[in-house]
């Protein structure tokens, strides 16, 4: 019932975790407001929600790299639904490659989407949440933001940035009724790896450890309007992140060669 009549903006809502979050929000009585780049996919998700849950799920075509269009989109949303109660910053992508082979265009795009777009969306919705003194901002980061691994230097850097931003934001909003949560999943079975791992080698190496998008989405939706600081999935991988902080040299020599080989 906590999501009844709540307006929940989800970026990257056209597939993967974002799509599953939208279905779960609708199932629990909330209004998913969908944002992504692909109009066809957004339309499909919105239609499915209408058919299954009898809830109107408005969608907006937006590439969060286009920072100048974020405020305009948020204004369209608030004009239509009144206000925004929850923002789930889920849009993001990665490309795995050794540093000497990194495409600088990919590097720039990863920071623009994963970091700048996330910050832009957050900055745009905060005034509405402060005005009503109510809200929840959920930023999807990654275990890669806690433990670096070979061939994911840029992607890890973007997720380190997301975690730093999220932790600072939580402290800034500490005296308000706006909650801030980071989500740090390990590898998930989604279209993410179509771009990140074109060779398929990494997916083969970690196939048995991969999380289902429905499971991750469920954990995120369950955390809405709670004071949960972080969602770390799976727990054993987060334990590895803690060990990495305590024993970095040991972890780089072992995990870097075995578990995280790409």
TrEMBL record:
Domain of life assignment: Bacteria
Keywords from the UniProt entry: Oxidoreductase
Keyword field contains RNA-binding: no
Oxidoreductase listed as a keyword: yes
Xref: InterPro entries: NAD(P)-bd_dom_sf, Sc_DH/Rdtase_CS, SDR_fam
Any single Pfam family the record assigns to this protein: adh_short
Gene3D superfamilies linked to this entry: NAD(P)-binding Rossmann-like Domain
SUPFAM superfamilies: NAD(P)-binding Rossmann-fold domains (SSF51735)
Record-stated family: Belongs to the short-chain dehydrogenases/reductases (SDR) family.
Name this protein carries in UniProt: SDR family oxidoreductase
Organism the protein comes from: Bacillus suaedaesalsae
């Amino acid at each position: 019932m906590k999501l009844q009549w709540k307006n929940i903006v989800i970026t990257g809502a056209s597939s993967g975790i974002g799509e599953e979050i939208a279905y779960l929000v609708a199932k629990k009585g909330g209004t998913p407001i969908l944002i992504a780049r692909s109009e066809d996919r957004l339309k499909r998700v919105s239609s499915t929600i209408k058919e299954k849950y009898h809830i109107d799920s408005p969608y907006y075509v937006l590439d969060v790299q286009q920072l100048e269009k974020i405020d305009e989109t948020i204004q369209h949303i608030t004009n239509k639904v009144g206000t925004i109660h929850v923002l789930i910053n889920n849009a993001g992508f990665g490309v795995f490659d050794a540093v000497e082979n990194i495409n600088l265009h990919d590097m720039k795009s990863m920071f623009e989407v994963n970091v700048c777009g996330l910050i832009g969306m957050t900055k745009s919705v905060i005034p509405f949440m402060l005005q009503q003194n109510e809200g929840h901002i959920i930023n999807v980061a990654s275990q890669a933001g806690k433990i670096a691994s070979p061939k994911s230097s840029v992607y890890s850097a973007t997720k380190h940035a997301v975690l730093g931003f999220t932790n600072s934001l939580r402290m800034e909003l500490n005296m308000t009724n706006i909650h801030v949560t980071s989500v740090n999943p390990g590898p998930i079975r989604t279209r993410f790896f179509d771009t990140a791992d074109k060779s398929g080698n990494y997916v083969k190496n970690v196939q048995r450890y991969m999380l289902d998008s429905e499971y991750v989405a469920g954990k995120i939706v369950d955390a809405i309007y709670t004071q949960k600081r972080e969602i770390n999935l799976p727990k054993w991988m987060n334990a590895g992140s803690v060990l990495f902080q305590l024993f970095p040299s040991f972890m780089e020599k072992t995990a870097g060669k075995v578990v995280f080989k790409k």
